[in-house]
Each structure stands twice: as C-alpha cells, then as structure tokens.
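Practice set, problem 2.
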Amino acid sequence: MKLVVAIAVGMRQKDVSVMPSLQALQGDGSTASIQPTLPAVTTSVQATYLTGAPPSDHGIVGNGWYHRDTREIRFWLQSRSLIEKPTLIDQLQGDGFSVANLFWWYNMGSGARWSLTPRPEYPADGRKIPSVYGEPPELPVNLQNELGTFPLFDFWGPRAGITSTRWIVDAALKVAQQNNPDVLFVYLPHLDYDDQRYGPDSPEAQRSRGELDQELARLLDGCREKGAQAMVLSEYGIEEVEQPVFPNRILAEAGDVEVQVTSHGDLLDVHRSRAFAVCDHQLAHVYIRNSDDLTRIKELLSKVEGIERILAGEELDSIGLNHRRSGELVLIAEQGCWFAYPWWQDEQRAPDYARTVDIHRKPGYDPAELLLDPELTFPKLKIGAKILARKLGFRNLLDVISTDPSKVRGSHGRAVGDPLQGPVLVRSWKSGAESINAEDVFAEIIGQVRSG
C-alpha cells in the first residue's frame, strides 16, 4: 500500500493539538490549513478533492439542489455520474494503481476496484434495513458477515456516534489486509455529530475528539504496517451557531412559496412557487421561476437578519458557484447563523416527515435530525415500541425529531476568518506549504502516489 487518505469530518486546525495520533503524524510530516471551496459542505468539498476543480466546474453545488429537468429537490444522491469532471480514482487507476474507496461520497459507479457506501434496503412492506453497497458485489456481503451489519442508525440520526466510525475503520483494515490497495480512501464522520448538537467546543465535542483519535490511531497503525504514507484532512470546520434563519418562511409570507395541501401536511410545491430556497447549512440556493422577480426577491431577502451576502449572476464566479445547478441567488449566512428549510408557520401543517429522520424526502438539510424531541416523555420506550411494531409488520411513523431547529449549536458552509477554526490537512511527509486551496489536494495526492 502506498497511501491512505482519511477524511476526519469537521476537524479544525486547532483540534490537531488535542489528538495524539495527529501530533505523531505531523511530528515526522507536516500540516497545512485548507481554504475550502464554497459551500464548505460534505459533497461539494469532497468533489473538489476528487477533481481538483471548484463546484462551477464539477457541478456539485451542495449536498442537494433543485433538478430543473425533473423539478425535484434531491439531497444525498450517490451516483458518480453527477460529478462532471474526471476524478482521482479515474486518474490513479488509469495510471495502473489500485484504489479502494470507503464511504467518500459519489461512490456508486465510482470505478474504484473496492468500494463501500451506505445504502439501506427498502422492502416493499415499508421497512428500512441498514446495509451498504459496494464493489465487487461480494465485498459488502463478506464484510457484513465478518463485522456485523453496517450500523446505519449510528451513522446519522439522534443515535449517531462512534459506533459507525469504528465499523468503517474495521472495514478499512480488513480491506487493507486482504486486498492491499495502492490507495485507500476512508471517511470518518464522528466529529460531525456532537459538534452540531452541542457546539464544537462543548464538553461533548471534546470527548468526541478523544474517541475519534483512538480510531484514527488504529487506522494509521494498520496502514503503516502495510508500508503506507498517510494523509488526514477535513472538508470544513464547524462553528458555533445560535440563530437559524428561515428564507422559505420569508418567501412564503411574500406569496412566493406555494404549498400542496395533503392529508399528511403542506408540501413545498416547486411547480407553482415563484421562488423557494434549498437550504444547506450556512448556504442556500434560491431558485426563481421568472427572472423579472429576481431584483424584488433579492431586495426582500437583503432585509433579513442573519444573511451576510446575496450573490447573483456573474457574482457567483467570485465564489466558484456559477453553474446551471446553482440558484438564481445564493445566500451566505452571517457568523453564528445557519439556514433552516421549514416554510410552514403552523406546526399542525408541517409535513409528516418533518418529525422523522428522512434525508432524502426533506427538501433541505436538517441537523435537528441529530436531536430527539425534548418534549417526548420516555423517548427510548416510544422508539422501541415503534420499532417492535414495524418488525411485527405494522406501519407507523417514527416521529421522534423536533421541528424546532433552535437547539442546533454547530454549522458550517461559509468561509471562516481564522485558519485555526477551519479545515486542516496533516501528512506523513514534509511539505513547505502551510496553507493550500482545496483544489490543490488533488495534485498533492497524485504526486505522492506517483513518487511513492
């Protein structure tokens, strides 16, 4: 093995000093702060690492966006074909190197010789069964036989924690030992959870850094035994937030957002709405049906507290987001603020999925899914009873999530002013660069593999 590249989600430059595995790595190697592309969110930055290009070129303008051809807002799609540029995997395997990709995004059809990505099974009876998709097809079967079923509900939701990261490290070590790829990409999500629940400097978040460090040490030690160099990096740093901003409610009050009234709540109607916002952490794309409304809507949103910048047209070039998938307007939140997707004012008219963990149905990112509704009495008992009923064949709604986003304490997506609060790269080799752009990660990985 030549190289392991591990994403430690949400790791800031200041966190390196409290993580012994990274201190040891940088002791013989080097560290650099990363200037991320916008939005500084999972899929956009990973696509930049994979291609060496900004979102205006590779097309991943957020974790989700409005698909104009089908008139659908879709988040967390997984197809490699959505990236509109060649990737690291294409380049490395074209050079004759073997690649394993474990849990980096857009991993379905990525071309990696070995791959794993979360992919629940959905039987026709309505159940959701944790599982993973992978290549070759026997890999996910064999690994789940050896390690147990992938702990999907520890990967996202109110139970999300170290269990999912530990499973991914176990899987990575198995792939390293049994298949010995030249390059191993690994995604470790653990810091994403308590940083958003409680804030990145909370006692809970500090404890999570110790938990992650233990798993990182296992991964790095195992790959070092295979002769691999190592790079550990993050896509963004999470900052403390207190104020959610609701652009869709502002647009609804102005008569621009329309809803479809259904038996299970009022749904965002993209076909009839004059404008709506696709909210993704600290950035939101606003899609406007008629260009004549653009100036009016920009003026309307410019008066909203918590919005730092509104960009349109050629202004999007300055942040690398001038792409057909972007909204007519792009909103960037002020420090300490983030964008919440709800459009309803009456909780009785909220869609039924609003109180559930449902990352694909919601037309915006919802970090409140990490938190149980504080108004629930005996929440574990309620959840257990509902899950038991599902196992017995009864359909029900797992409505245990609050629709109040004010409890969220961490977010990301905007540019941070202090490099210590932003993403970081730690490598096992020396380099004179103390700061790099996210686009430069691609070339550094290629160069290290070719010279190794």
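Problem 2, part (b): a different protein.
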Amino acid sequence: MGISAVGAQTPSRGALSDGEMLTGPFIAVAEHLRPTVVSISVRKSRDADNFWDPERGSVKRQRSAPPQFGSGVILSADGYVLTNNHVIDRASTIRVTLSDNTEYSARIVGQDPETDIALIRLLTNARLRDDQIAQMGDSDALRVGEWVVAIGNPFGFQRTVSAGVVSAKGRLLEEIEGGTPSFQDFIQTDASINPGNSGGPLANLRGQVVGINTAYRPSGVGVGFAIPISLASKVAKELRETGHVTRGFLGVHPQELTADLAEARGAEPGRGVLAGDVQKGSPADQGGIRRGDVILEVGGQRVRDVVGYLRAVADLRPGARTPIGILRDGRPMTLSCVIRMRPPPPPQDREEAEAGFSREKLWMGLVVHDRGTIEARRANDEADEGVVVTYVAPGSASEEKGIGLGDAILEVEGARVSTVTDYQSLSRRLEGRGRPVLVLIRKKGEEVTTFVALRERN
C-alpha cells in the first residue's frame, strides 16, 4: 500500500508502466522524477552580524556567510516541499529553484530534529503542475538488492541522477554532520549521495519516492543513507497540521534483548526489550515498571527491538492511559501507564549546546545520558555501568583532563552514579565547593577504571 503525501494533494501522475521500466528504467525514472526535485539555497542566521572592532573603536559588520545548498521534493500543488532539517535549520533566507529554473522564496512550516525532517512552503499563489508533484511509494516494501535512483544537487550540480541498490535497511548511525536524529531506521544504498543531495528523493524503478537522502560516509565509496518515506511522510503530515511533532514519553531506557539476556530473564530472544533503567518519577516508574523487566508490548503493539520500542512509545498520545505488557521473573503481566509528552531533544552542535544547556547540565562541561538511550548508544554502545558522556564542552575542565565522548562516569566523590538523576543530584550538591571533585571513569573501549580530579571553572 502506497504512503500518501502530506495533506491534500493534487492527483499526480501514476507509477511507471512495466514497459517503461523494461525499455529504459533509469531514463524513465529520471524523466519522471526530475520535475519534482528542487534545489534549495539557504543563508544561515548568525548570532551576531556585527562585532566590536577594538582597533577601529567601532562596530564592524561581518562578511555574510556563503549560501549552503540542499535538495527537496515537492509534495503538493500549493507549494509544500519536503527536505532535511539540517538543510534549513537556522536559515535566515531560503530560496528554492524548480526544475524549469523558476525561483521562489520559501518559509519554514515546521522542523523535526529528531528525524531530521523539515517542511517548507513556497511563497507563491501560483499552483504547481501535476508533473511537479512527487508520488510517494512504500518504503516498508523495499527489499535489499532492489534498484533505486537518487536525485539531488550534489556540490551545486542541479538534479544529478545516480543509481544503485538497497544495500541494507534499518541502519543506525552514530554521528551525522549537521545533527544526529534520535529516531533512525535508515535505508542504506550504494547510489552516489554527496553534499547537496540532502533532502532529495530516493526512488524505486516506478518513479515513486521511497526515501529522503540524508547522509553519506566520506571515508566509504557507495555508502549513503536515506530516511524511509513512511517515516518522513508521517512527520511531514504532522508538521503541516501543527508545525511540530508530538511524541509520547514513557521513561524507560531500553536495551536490546540479546540471546544471553533473554535466557537470563526467561524471555524469548528477539521478542521485547530489556528495561535497563527506569527514570524516577516517569510514567513507567509511576506505572510500576522496574529495572530488569522485559517489555513485550506497548499499547497492544508487539515490541521486537529498541528501534521498534522507541517508535511505539513515540506514537502514543500524551495523557492516554496505556497498557504495557511485560515479563517479570518469567511471569507475563500487564501494567498501566499514563503517557507524557516527550521532552525536546538536547542540542547537537557546539553553539546550541553552549547556549541551550543549563549550568547544571553542563556541570564540569559535560552532558551525560543514561545507558540504553539512543544518544548513549551512539557514543558508546558497550557501556554496562554508569552514565555515558555525550558532549564535552571545548575548554572545559573535563576536556582538559581527557574525558571524551563515550566515556562512562561511574562514581562522583565515592557515590555510585547509575542514572542521569544520580549525576545531576551530585552535581547540585557539589557545585561551588571550591576544591577538586574526584570522579571515577572508564574510558571508552577500555576495561580498567581511572580516577580524575575535576575543578570547576568560573
């Protein structure tokens, strides 16, 4: 079943026929899809366009930053365009060029950093042609080995076409330039994806969009990644309707249920996730979920892995009382939790982190996450105790002492640190003490622990 595009959409052309596919599939797909692809030129806003020049004793205007380029896909005749969040994030101006070289300004309708999806709209009253509106396909039906075509504007070369196959599905990435999304289920392809392709379509041989090109690996040839259109369309629909995405929050930090863990907990491998920790005061905690429980179902939906668990929880409506099926000590039971709204994600780049994190969260220049969270797993998926460092502020005491991304904080002043709540409680108690704080860490990839003495900086 095809995935419908965002909101009301003018009927677009149908999929390519079998004859078109067989006589020249890549040519047919390129001709079919090119009119639906746009080039996006963005000038990013800066914290300060002017600065004080001490030599001149006056305010001097900085030279404006050069434009950055990306791609997008037209979703509807009234000018809605789907792209990546990192393409338009913090944009001061957005210019969109269509395939016929018509150029429009655009405004941001909504952004979702947690999936790296954004929706923009062309500032025009003119309605677009039917052949400019992309048809959405079914990314869930994609098979590994299937041919796909990527179209975009790599390095500013507009509407460049490349072809390859689906190399894998369900990929998770540790780090993506421009921001690493929390919700990941990437399609991997060897179709060429380069800077400027971001936001452009990945299509099947029927000319249907099955993914939004998002990332590539600079060190690897033919390793590109796209967001499944099933996820992108769902997010874009909500952005169009409300301008933001609302997700459910349970408060469990999930772990994959490996064969050994499943055997130890009396569960079946590949069925459920392990509650590695439960946030104090969270819906899960208040509903009776305990650390070590195996979560089998969320709202009647079976859970098989961490990605599926996160997606199921995100889809829950805040305020709803939801049944959570668990396995405890080999006994199945159903608990009831009142879902809350998922809090916004932490900032992902240096400027945002330093501006947006509170002093408490940046105690000693560190941001930490609980084991089992997506953020922690990206930094260090082998940590089995403590909390995981996910950000180190440049020039901080922690950076000076060699604490790095993925290191685990085990103890602070002899007190065990098992959760972010523990860490924050200790940081509040020790803040401003005036002498070094003794911290026990385990460096990423090492088995031994190390003590570090950290002194707060004013």
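Answer key, part (b): The chain has three domains: 1-245, 248-341, 350-454. The domain at 248-341 is CATH 2.30.42.10 (Pdz3 Domain).
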